[in-house]
Amino acid sequence: MKTNYLKKYIISSYILVWALIILVAGSASLVFHAPPVVMWIIRNLIAWSPTYLLLIGWKHFRPDETRMAFIKRCFSGKVKTLPLLLSFALSFGISVLSLFIFSVIEKKPMLSYINLGTTALPLSIFLSFTSGPTGEELGWRGFMREEFNKKYAFLQSAVCQGLVWCFWHTLLWVVDSEFTDWRAVPYIISNIVVITSITVLMNIFLERHNNLLYSVLLHFGFNIIYVFLDAGIGFFVILTVLYLVIMPIAVLIRNKTVKRASVE
Q1: Does residue 1 have a pLDDT over 60?
Q2: How confident is the model at residue 2 (pLDDT cuts 50, 70, 90)?
Q3: 254 domain-assigned
Q4: I need a surface site. Which of 34, 87, 88, 128 has the fewest CB within 10 A?
């Protein structure tokens, strides 16, 4: 029977991240009462777990290839400045537009929903960049994307990747969210729709450019605003609607581009 390396990786990644959240982050917070910056660093270390798992357990997931060959392929595509900036601007812009619409509805200034907190701004940006954007992409958009692409067509593959990535965050919805009442329902729906849509957008960039720097920047563009965001559930509802509009448009454009290229 052929080994399902993708299934092994997905199950292992879920077990590892949930164990780290409960044992490491839980102990640091509840037992040692670690300050916010220390907890942020711990969360960053946990965010890198898909990469730890992949590289340390490499022979269990991709025994027919070397680590270095895989890493080189993940960053083999030529980096073009404009598309790279667009990858960041797309996710960041959607979040800013959502916040703008939310502020108009609430009749409050946009900046009233931004809280810089007590951590220095450069450190906040650095910690945001070195969490999920740099820590998760080698596993999700590197290994997992390749494995799903072997099995399914573009859109089905991207949606499957997005759902795996989305539910990998399940425990965080419980322990790291302020929405614990009825708002948890639209918040979870938002996470499912938005994370899956972002994965589709990442796959569009990676299909064309084949360099994880594009998904890293798109991931960072999405994450950075949430470091400072202090908005209600209405923001996430608006964000969900925008992604439900923008993602299908991006797929249609991608399909037309691929069809045109195949004809030529």
Answers
A1: no
A2: low
A3: yes
A4: 34
Query: Which CB contacts under 8 angstroms, 24+ apart, belong to 145-153?
Result: 145/203, 145/206, 147/5, 147/6, 147/9, 148/6, 151/6
Name the domain count of the chain. 1
As a whole number, mean pLDDT of residues 196-224 equals 97
In a domain, 189, yes or no: yes
CA angle 155, 159, 163 (to 5 degrees): 175
The mean pLDDT of 21-34, rounded to a whole number, is: 90
* Predicted confidence band of residue 264 (pLDDT cuts 50, 70, 90): low
Give the closest residue to 86 by CA, choosing from 208, 170, 168.
208
Give the C-alpha distances (Å, rounded to integers) separating 58 from 53, 132, 155, 160: 8, 20, 27, 22
Helix axes 184-209, 233-263, angle to 10 degrees: 30
For the chain, report the end-to-end CA distance as a whole number of angstroms. Answer: 41
Residue 110 lies in a domain: yes
How far apart are the C-alpha atoms of 33 and 2, rounded to whole Å? Answer: 47
pLDDT tens digits for range 58-102 = 999 999 999 999 999 999 999 999 999 999 999 999 999 999 999
Partners of residue 203 on adjacent β-strands = none
pTM, entire model: 0.94
Q: Which residue has the higher pLDDT, 181 or 189?
A: 189
Domain extent for 163: 77-263
Where do we find the tokens 């919805």?
173
Separation CA 136–CA 49 (nearest Å): 7
What are the DSSP calls for 206-260, one per residue? Answer: HHHH--HHHHHHHHHHHHGGGGTB---HHHHHHHHHHHHHHHHHHHHHHHHHHHH
Residue with tokens 């946009």: 110
